[in-house]
């Protein structure tokens, strides 16, 4: 796939995502979508904090 094909595909995907986000933000389900996104973001943040703590402990153990 050449660069211009990749650019066209990227543009189409980006436009589709933009349309979907715009639709949801203008719909009655906006608050529900925002709550779900916040929940998923919090879960990801907690998971990353846990992984960082595990990594820090493993690194500390290796250096000790």
UniProtKB/TrEMBL annotation:
A Pfam family of this chain: YtxH
Transmembrane segments: 7-25
Keywords, comma-separated and alphabetical: Coiled coil, Membrane, Transmembrane, Transmembrane helix
Domain of life: Bacteria
Coiled coil: 34-61
Protein's UniProt name: YtxH domain-containing protein
Organism of provenance: Chitinophaga parva
